[in-house]
Structure formats: C-alpha cells, structure tokens
Design goal:
Elements (H helix, E strand, L loop, with lengths): L5 E5 L11 E4 L6 H13 L4 E5 L6 H9 L3 E3 L7 H17 L4 E2 L18 H9 L3 E7 L1 H4 L13 E5 L15 H18 L7
C-alpha cells in the first residue's frame, strides 16, 4: 500500500495509543477500506473494526476480507430489521471499544459519487457519545481518482494523501447519544474538521 499508492501520511502521532476512539474519515472509494487498516493496525498493533454495509457480506470475496478485520455489519437502508441490526452493531462496537480496539465509521455513510464531501450521518457521533471516547477525524485525498465508484481495479498511481487530525473530545455531551440535536451538532463539528483536512468546506 505505502510503496505503490501512498504519497504522504501526516499526523500519525495524533492516533490515541490506548485504542479507545472512533475513526471518522471521508469516503471517496472502496480503496478507503484498505487504507484505514493499513495505517491504524500496524501503528497500534490492534484490530480496526469497520462499520460496513451488510450487503457486502453477501459477496464471498468481500466477506472474507470483512470477517478477517472483524467488520461490523450495519443496515444502511430502512428495512423491517434495520433497527435490530443496527442496535446489535452498536452493542458490538461498544464491546470492542471497551476492550481498547478502535472503530471506523464513515460519517458520510457511503462513497461520494462526485468527489464532493457529503452530509454527515449521525452514527459516528452516537457511538462516540455512548462509549465516551474521542473521535479521530481523517482526511483522505486521491482515492476518488484512484478507484471511483464505477471502477473495480485501482490505478497504479502514487497519489493518496492521508491527513490525521487531532482527536475531538465531546465530554460535555457524553450520555446524550439519544438527543438528535446534540448528535447533529457533534456530527457537524466532526465533518468540519474532516473538511479542513482535505481542504474543502462543509456546506451542509
């Protein structure tokens, strides 16, 4: 990864060493799912558990990779069982964080179609407040060009820059993960930090 695709990784010293944090990167490509473990796992020698759309577990190749990293299946779309599935995902994430293993959630929820930063969803904020842990904002640049949504094979191009921001602490909101107004406020703060890291404005 680092020899072929990485151009630069900045701010790796900002990663909390205890492992109790939520990683919140922007999401431009499937390639992001390879980037995050390749940085966090070797640095901490801990697993990075990623929230992943459960539909990808149906693909044998994806399932092999996701299960290897003990990814957490979530229901992105409303369905008969989505509340039950996502409640189970939250409980599993809380368990991993309690055991000092970080969780990765893309606040945008899904990959961008045009390379622009999308509106943040509330999942990363909800988990951070429920677990009483900081959020680590991360900005990824270059993966949209490397492997956009309609492509399946990445270009062999050293163009990926990853910027890791300082941990964001929301202690005054701990225990308020059920308050949507608080969740939106925290999510906006997270997204604005991510936007700064990639040199964009968060306009939502």
């Amino acid at each position: 990864m680092k020899l072929i695709w990485f151009k630069e990784v900045k701010g790796i010293e900002n990663i909390p060493l205890d492992g109790r944090f939520v990683v919140a990167p922007n999401h431009q490509s499937f390639f992001d799912d390879w980037i995050m473990p390749s940085i966090i796992v070797p640095y901490l020698d801990k697993e990075l558990h990623m929230y992943s759309n459960r539909k990808y577990f149906k693909n044998p190749l994806f399932r092999l990779y996701l299960n290897h990293h003990k990814a957490i299946p979530v229901e992105v779309y409303k369905s008969r069982d989505h509340k039950k599935i996502n409640k189970k995902a939250l409980q599993k994430a809380l368990y991993y964080l309690k055991n000092k293993e970080p969780i990765c959630i893309y606040p945008e929820g899904h990959r961008t179609l045009d390379g622009q930063l999308q509106e943040g969803k509330l999942g990363a904020a909800r988990l951070a407040l429920a677990a009483k842990v900081p959020v680590l904002p991360i900005g990824i640049v270059g993966t949209f060009d490397l492997l956009p949504k309609e492509k399946v094979v990445p270009k062999f191009k050293r163009c990926v820059t990853v910027k890791i921001g300082e941990p964001l602490y929301f202690k005054k909101y701990y225990g308020k993960e059920g308050n949507k107004k608080v969740l939106r406020l925290v999510t906006t703060k997270i997204m604005k930090e991510v936007a700064k890291l990639i040199g964009r404005e968060y306009k939502h």
